[in-house]
Amino acid sequence: MPTVSYLTAEVRPEGGAVRLAFSLPSGFPEILVLRLPAGSPAPDPQSPPPQAREVFAGQPEPGPPYRFIRNAAEAPLQRGQVWDLEAFVDGHDDEPNRIEGATWDYWVFPRGDSYGEGARITASIARSLTAGLSVNVKNLLYQRLRYHAKAVGGTVAQQEHLIEGQPLPQVLLKVRHALQERHASEERDRERSVRAVTYRVTADVLILADDPRERNALVTNYRERLLGDLWLLEELGWTGLTMSDADQIADKEDAVLYGSAFTLEGMVLGYVSIPHPYRIADPLTVNGES
Fold first, then answer.
1. Element containing residue 227 per DSSP (H, E)
2. N or C: which end of the chain has fewer CB within 10 A?
């Protein structure tokens, strides 16, 4: 009975996603893909069991070439692919919901006028990609503002709204991240590749007081202290810094608040570390057989 060949499962490092690639037999333009917990009996494609999830039914997209065929003349002609973007445990019977970690059996049935023989492949799903920034600007700047507040005054908080129940003056901090560039170069070793990214990080520091003279004195002190911090912040990884400030007036119920907004902006490097999907030295499983 015809079946798919060269069946592979590429587990995505982001977690929760698998790409199935295969070669369709002649005369079977469509497929049915079922996902079941590992070790489940072979399903009937015309009457799948309750625990089976239908991943795809229909004509698949053209797939990538099979990586391990040395002779191009032997390459399959009807290459297809299917993405499973819900490859995580979402509750079977009494099993609790969880995003990370699951082992699935994928059954792929070619379909023409009737179903062909199913092919099985097993995939273990987990998030293996890691990403991060070289410096946590929000925590770093919050520490610096608290240090300065001990000398010049003000209650410091990591929020953009007035702290209810706290006296003035207040120093409020908000940080924004914008992805500036994903670098084309990467560093590779035997296990993984590391790709660099650059973020533009903008920090807004709002100083609020109920008296304009107090506001002006605070602004002068914080401006001098933050200006002196720029070299330290750049040494720690927030580079190319610029700083600006502007006075503001805000209405708060029946009161008028006098404020000044500082804006610090600079670049922070980040990384994305991605393990290789396979190594030539690893055993290769096709159609469930090594």
1. helix 212-235
2. C
User: Roughly how many angstroms between the first and final C-alpha of the chain, as a whole number?
Assistant: 21
Residue 86: DSSP 8-state: -
How far is the CA of 215 from the CAs of 108, 152, 225, 265, in angstroms? 69, 11, 15, 23
> What single string gives the DSSP state of each residue in 15-65?
SS-EEEEEEPPTT--EEEEEEEETTPPPPPTTS--TT-EEEEEEPPEEPPP
Q: 4-29: per-residue pLDDT in tens? A: 988 999 999 988 899 999 999 988 99
Q: Give the residue among 27, 45, 23 at the shortest CA–CA distance from 36.
A: 45
Residue in 115, 89, 105, 82 with CA at minimum distance from that of residue 34: 105
Q: Phi first, then psi: what are they for 212, rounded to 5°?
A: -65, -35
Which residue type sits at 175?
V
Q: What distances in angstroms separate CA 171 from CA 61, 206, 256, one per listed residue?
A: 55, 6, 16
Q: What is the pTM of this model?
A: 0.77
Average pLDDT score over the chain: 87
Task: Count CB neighbours of 224 within 10 A.
Answer: 12
- Tell me the backbone φ, ψ of residue 234, rounded to 5 degrees: -70, -35
In DSSP terms, which residues pair with 5 in a beta bridge? Answer: 23
Supply 187's token pair: 């560093």
The Cα diameter of the chain in Å comes to 88
Structure tokens at 266: 């600079």
pLDDT at 43: 96
Given a cut of 60, whether residue 59 has pLDDT beyond it is yes
Close Cβ partners of 173 (under 8 Å, ≥ 6 residues apart): 138, 141, 142, 145, 156, 157, 158, 159, 203, 204, 205, 206
For residue 67, pLDDT beyond 70: no
